[in-house]
From TrEMBL:
Protein name as it appears in the record: UDP-N-acetylenolpyruvoylglucosamine reductase
Region forming the signal peptide: none
Statement: the UniProt record of this protein carries the keyword Cell division: yes
Catalytic function, reaction form: UDP-N-acetyl-alpha-D-muramate + NADP(+) = UDP-N-acetyl-3-O-(1-carboxyvinyl)-alpha-D-glucosamine + NADPH + H(+)
Homology family: Belongs to the MurB family.
Cofactor: FAD
Organism field: Arcicella rosea
Any single GO BP term: peptidoglycan biosynthetic process
EC number(s) on file: 1.3.1.98
UniProt KW keywords: Cell cycle, Cell division, Cell shape, Cell wall biogenesis/degradation, Cytoplasm, FAD, Flavoprotein, NADP, Oxidoreductase, Peptidoglycan synthesis
Enzyme class: oxidoreductase
Length: 338
């Protein structure tokens, strides 16, 4: 392993923020991961485990060891007439994995095309888009217990998935590192096209016969039209979660804001789009120096180049406060502040 000192983390976070790591190492196998964790020179240092860097807001230099998880590999572990289980290493790029499944006609995650990040990070916050979440296709994951250095297996129930939530963001935060994830996918597709602009986009693409690839292509087209490419403008995709509010609060709000969209969660709770709230609060297209709110999607905070994490954090706090003042709704960040 090549352990480096005072390494810039700018290439390793999609915001393109300049921050340095006191120590940095990339691990390609579970054994390498165990070795670095047992290395006496680093055992007592703080550690940051890095995937694709798409859910991080770096607000300072990292005093400790940054471990880049680069565990690769995709394999079929089970198959019958209708179902296939695919196991992927935590370091696999999520979109590359989705494309592998689309190309092999394995259905279930085509709606999650073009989401940034890695396979290992996907269950951490139960990523989702266009009516599909990781929990819908999740079979199990393997993770390294950072105390015992033993690999443990977590079932769907054990992960305690919620909306952009899992047990790894709460009671098990900082106690495990995901090494692989296994997904159960379908050979016979059940298409989900009701969410967002999928049906409209399919019509514009002149799609007459639905397919896994057509759904994926439509999602990619929508995301590219609305979300900036991190290679061009630094961002982490959706910065805030879509809030879930009591039905009673929603009914009160629509008296003043009759066009407020909503998506029923259950009989007592509805989800409202954070992007709509932020836009109505006047932030869409806002710019302050080298940071701002994206002009096409208010849910995305951006670094135009040269901005820093603390500036973005302060902007996020101003957005949160204005939405709270206007709607009485508190927005929660999807990204992790470091």
């Amino acid at each position: 392993m090549n352990i480096q000192q005072n390494i810039s983390l700018k290439p390793f976070n999609t915001f393109g923020l300049e921050a340095s790591a006191q120590y940095f190492v990339e691990v390609n196998t579970v054994e390498e991961l165990k070795d670095i964790l047992q290395n006496p020179d680093f055992k007592n240092l703080d550690k940051l485990f890095l995937g694709g860097g798409s859910n991080l807001l770096l607000t300072k230099n990292y005093e400790g060891l940054v471990i880049k998880i680069a565990l690769k590999g995709v394999e079929k572990v089970f198959e019958d007439e209708n179902t296939v289980y695919i196991k992927a290493g935590a370091g696999e790029i999520w979109h590359h994995f989705v494309m592998y499944c689309v190309e092999n006609n394995y259905a279930g995650i085509e709606n999650l095309s073009l989401i940034p990040g890695t396979v290992g990070a996907a269950p951490m916050q139960n990523i989702g888009a266009y009516g599909v979440e990781i929990k819908d296709v999740f079979q199990e994951l393997q993770a390294l217990n950072l105390e015992t250095l033993e690999i443990e297996t977590f079932s769907l129930a054990a992960c305690q998935f919620g909306y952009r939530e899992s047990i790894f963001k709460h009671s098990l935060k900082g106690k495990y590192v995901t090494t692989s994830v296994t997904f159960h996918l379908n050979k016979i597709a059940t298409f989900k096209t009701a969410y967002g602009d999928i049906q409209k986009t399919l019509a514009e693409m002149n799609v007459t016969a639905l397919s896994i690839k057509a759904i994926s292509d439509a999602v990619i087209s929508i995301r590219r039209s609305k979300l900036p490419d991190p290679a061009e403008i630094g961002n982490s995709g959706s910065f805030f979660k879509n809030p879930e509010i009591p039905l009673g609060q929603y009914k009160t709000l629509i008296e003043s804001f009759p066009t407020l969209p909503s998506y029923p969660i259950n009989e007592t709770t509805v989800k409202v789009p954070a992007g709509w709230l932020i836009e109505q609060a006047g932030w869409k297209g806002f710019r302050d120096g080298q940071i701002g709110v994206h002009a096409r999607q208010a849910l995305v905070l951006v670094n135009y180049g040269g901005g820093n994490g603390n500036e973005i954090k302060k902007l996020a706090e101003k957005v949160q406060q204005s939405v709270l003042d206007k709607f009485g709704i508190k927005l929660s960040p999807e990204v992790n502040y470091i």
